[in-house]
Amino acid sequence: MEDMTTEISAADRLEDALSGRIDHSAVDAIADLSHQVSLQELTRLVHTSTPLQSAVLFRILDKDVAVAVFENLPPGYQAELLQNLREPEVADIVEGLDPDDRAELFGELPAGVVTQLMKGLDADERKMTTAVLGYPKSAIGRYMSPEVLSLHEDWTAAEAMEVVRARIDGPETVYLLPVVGPGRVLLGVVSLRNLIAADPDTPLSEMVRESITAHALTDREAASRDFLSHRLIAMPVVDQEERLVGILTMDDVLDIVDEEDAEDIARSSGSEPLDRSYLSSSIIRLVRSRIVWLLVLAVSAILTVQVLEVYEERLDQVVILALFIPLLTGTGGNTGNQAATTVTRALAVGEVRIRDLGRVIWRELRVGFLLGAVLGVLGFIVAGLVYGPAIGLVIGLTLLSVCIMAATVGGLMPIIAKRVGADPAVFSNPFISTFCDATGLILYFSIATAVLGLR
């Protein structure tokens, strides 16, 4: 408890020192405090401070600590931080990154800067980085590590262990070892545990087991979800000819999934994801992430206003109908969003595919009916007791219809988005809410016209 209190205190004091005037005495204090703070807290401070404060703190850190902190930062912020550092510091940091992390960083930098940084790498590092950069940003090959320790099928367990001991510092992981044949064609994998426990004279061909693999051009999210669903610690990556080209590790998969989930959450809420922390993002950056969606939703909401204008005369006949509009539109939007969120998540983890469209519609029709029946009965009783049976019947039937419509549309839209190559999260909350508002009002006034005999 005392150590935790000391660390928290040191982190707070370091944050205060960075926020104040930075002179020679402040730099000495920052350097002293940085040695008392954990790597996690240093990463947080670099990520959430202003660009100037981040650069000052980063320059003070020891080289190994600085590289470790840098690796934990989002690629967009890494690129921004590099612009505030001196050229020798940049070269040291880039050289200390793994090829896959370096390629992800280069994807955020201008081409001229990338060319300059590539010149500073040795031939092997440049070759591996170039290989990873050759894949599209959406492909899993862009995030694999080309530094993979592979074993040959004709080796014995003893020979394989000698190679592992000699090269253990190079690869990103040695817990899962790919076994290759002629032409580096992947035959399977051997775990380090089984290799250690095996009889030294046992051929690897007798130990190799089939491996779950990913093709280098596979979509990064699909490959990452597959990785997690099989609870892997590493996954070999192959090309179209089944030749081993790299290996995917858990840390890369978690980064991809975190980024995809953050993007889905942001877009389903009507905004764009931030490429850096909230506190270190400028006001203009925050506005830009939200304004486009607000403009789109504002324009689409005009449809709702037009629907109300069409039925204005009927509202004048039964003014009490206007009181229930917020209830009905809110119920439709919430029901649609629930369905869309559920289906979007199911698409992301591979539980639902595009060809399951019919099954999803049928399920959501039944779900919407049951939800609408419960809410409709409740609405009929409450509204009927207060405003009369006719109004109660209108509200009950509308709630039933709105729930069926909203649940069906909410389940349908993400699959359509996936089919046309759009992000399913984009079709979730914002657009579904607007669609259900307008359609729900049409159902409401149509039912009211029929039940109440309006003209």
Automatic annotation (TrEMBL):
Annotated ranges, domain CBS? 144-206, 207-263
The record's Gene Ontology cellular component field reads: plasma membrane
* Entry-linked Gene3D superfamilies: CBS-domain (3.10.580.10), MgtE N-terminal domain-like (1.25.60.10), SLC41 divalent cation transporters, integral membrane domain (1.10.357.20)
Under InterPro entries, the record lists: CBS_dom, CBS_dom_sf, Mg_transptr_MgtE_intracell_dom, MgtE_N_sf, MgtE_transporter, SLC41_membr_dom, SLC41_membr_dom_sf
Q: What does this protein do?
A: Acts as a magnesium transporter.
Record-stated family: Belongs to the SLC41A transporter family.
Transmembrane keyword on record: yes
The record's section on PROSITE patterns has: CBS (PS51371)
Matches recorded under Pfam families: CBS (PF00571), MgtE (PF01769), MgtE_N (PF03448)
Write the protein's name: Magnesium transporter MgtE
Q: Which residues cross the membrane?
A: 291-311, 367-387, 393-417, 429-454
The UniProt keyword set, sorted, is: CBS domain, Cell membrane, Magnesium, Membrane, Metal-binding, Transmembrane, Transmembrane helix, Transport
